[in-house]
Amino acid sequence: MVAGTTAAGTTVGARHALAAALLPGLAAAALASVPVDAQTVRSAAEVVAAATDEEWRGLDPDNTVYFEMEGGRVVVELAPWAAPRHVEALRAIVRGGHYDGAPVVRSQDNYVAQWRVAPPAEGASLPGWLSDALAAEFTTSSGGLPFTPLPDPDVYAAEAGFTRGFPVGREPGSGTTWIAHCYGTVAVPRGNDPDAASPAGLYAVTGHAPRHLDRNATVVGRVVQGMEHLTTLPRGTGTLGFFETPEERPLIRSARMGSDLDPADRVAVEILRTDSESFQAWVLASRTRTEEWFVHPTGRIELCNVRIPVRAVP
Amino acid sequence: MVAGTTAAGTTVGARHALAAALLPGLAAAALASVPVDAQTVRSAAEVVAAATDEEWRGLDPDNTVYFEMEGGRVVVELAPWAAPRHVEALRAIVRGGHYDGAPVVRSQDNYVAQWRVAPPAEGASLPGWLSDALAAEFTTSSGGLPFTPLPDPDVYAAEAGFTRGFPVGREPGSGTTWIAHCYGTVAVPRGNDPDAASPAGLYAVTGHAPRHLDRNATVVGRVVQGMEHLTTLPRGTGTLGFFETPEERPLIRSARMGSDLDPADRVAVEILRTDSESFQAWVLASRTRTEEWFVHPTGRIELCNVRIPVRAVP
Fold it and tell me: Is the pTM for the entire model greater than 0.80?
């Protein structure tokens, strides 16, 4: 078989402790050429098993949207720290029920699935505020943001790593941070005017990371569970994967803020904090593969290939 | 909308000629920090429209496998130059009809779809040669191979670029080339013994490029058309995306070598030669985005984000 990458429970050979302490404070570029001995890196399974309860965090229900699709539930964690205006508007749109019965209008293979609020009932119209044009939030100030650097360089960003559970690029010169367009990133489509977007439409990355969209669209969040309900949707046959007729469009049954759900109806998962030591060890384990299957342990990892560990609440 | 990346017909603003002549002969690293003025780069649409007939090539029918799935046809171009023994064995397995009615045994979201030859009829057994253990063909000698370097560095390989229509990594020290695990790459699964694989099983990359598999598995080809028939398959619910019961497994109706099909039944497509000047211009156009939509023209591209242009035979 092909060795797996996502499962915390991947069967792996036992190895010994690593020098996670190597990482903090070192710039990505500085570590890029430092070979790591595979024999000294803990396996991914060992790292996850050893993480302390304090290193895991729950989802903030006010920053979580549940999209209920025919195939199942798509859980999106929002990033108000990256795009406060868009996230605030999105919460209002969700709470207004406008994503209930909303159509997926586009499904382009190896690129994005895109959906938008439900059309108004016959004879009615959507509230005007739904299409309020928001100014771009393509980047945010790096000031005060936690940052766990990736120990490898990035093709697209001067610095790459993780902030508050999201893969990010950073530019030291401008002091800016942006969420990278990795698989599962959720952002706001727009026309040519960068300052006229509305989260009455959303897209999620369903293919190889289209990093050329970084700093060109406002990212509002990331799918933390249920990506398969977006990626298995039929593909649109029109230009850019748009569906050619309304009848072809898959529907989103409903969307709810986590905080509007009964706690028992929320997903019971925890996410490994990206500012934890165990996460840094996880990156190293993902980077240098100690499993017996690997002939070539790699010793490198690209930003969007780091899967952020999720576990069921113990 | 989100700007598209695949369509040759993407609407873009007109721009002027570029210095494609900058590229040949320069190592990837040397160009990595050379900014390209967006105003001087032709758009992707302009490049494809201007490519000469000699820059396009057809598919060699003896190096093309057609997998017929319920959803449609998956067309795989083989790379005998990279894995001669595995490709030869795969041709024999296809010609023996062993992929007719073959089950997809694994579909792991954001990773791979994996299939294997059909089980023998009741009371029968599969020919022994089907499971002949082949020695690894993880890399091949770079000697004599054409190579079009990518003008950006790669996280995983010392050099990255294109050889004979495939995205490749190269290591100058060992003089080796290998096909990269990009979206659509088709390779041979194996157990822990690197020299005991058989193309009686295959996998295709259906998610973000799992480059840690590079040099760890024998790549036999690449899907050039029909990826959506693999990516929209239901996901397996077992460990690593394996289907838990035989009934859940999608079936491949048949597999045929192109050369065993009536020419009228082959796909009528051409692929832009990766050793052509127009392909180099295409890479630059994909790298620096001149379309009005882009606020940030990017100016970088990662190996697996270069889509190799395909057109209908004119």
Answer: yes
